[in-house]
Specification:
Number of domains: 1
Strand order of the largest sheet: 2-1-3
Shape: globular
Number of strands: 3
Order of helices and strands: HEHEEHH
Helix content: 25-40%
Strand content: 5-15%
Length: about 170
């Protein structure tokens, strides 16, 4: 397992799964399904990158209910709930918050993975600073490219059978 993987997975899980009573106070980044011509690997990779972007901007990532990412890889009735066809059919539920918590003043919808809205003011890295700093502290000689590849392999999506301990 790459260094800091368990720490990172637990941090992300807690970030994406606040107490549901707190969701109405949060800010969100909403992603719809727009990867019709890509494979599952691209969808998972892009969703992980967007998760890092959401975290850098103090937002929780949620799927748009009617057009959630991954819907073209799963059966229509793979689960019940508002977003019945999504990556949640393959992985653990992405957040304890839902689109029911979204208001016009607390969300940004990312309609295109390749064109990030100006209000997000991104740097070239979507790796949340807490992870980059932890890696730099523990591995001061680690090259920036290695940090990028670490993030790709370690941090983004939980397997349904690998729920972090509380």
């Amino acid at each position: 397992m790459p260094p800091l993987t368990k720490f990172t997975q637990e941090y992300i899980y807690k970030w994406q799964h606040p107490d549901p009573s707190e969701c109405s106070k949060k800010q969100f980044l909403v992603i719809p399904h727009y990867w019709d011509n890509n494979g599952l690997g691209t969808v998972v990779h892009a969703t992980g990158w967007i998760l890092g972007l959401a975290m850098r901007h103090n937002r929780i990532l949620v799927y748009q209910d009617s057009r959630a990412p991954g819907q073209n890889f799963v059966e229509p009735d793979c689960k019940t709930g508002p977003s019945t066809r999504s990556l949640d059919c393959i992985f653990e539920s992405f957040s304890s918050c839902s689109t029911q918590n979204i208001r016009p003043d607390n969300n940004i919808t990312l309609f295109n993975y390749w064109k990030i809205p100006a209000e997000l003011n991104i740097s070239t890295s979507a790796i949340p600073p807490v992870f980059g700093q932890a890696l730099k502290n523990g591995f001061p000689d680690m090259h920036e490219d290695a940090i990028k590849y670490w993030a790709d392999s370690s941090c983004c999506i939980h397997d349904a059978h690998e729920r972090p301990s509380s």
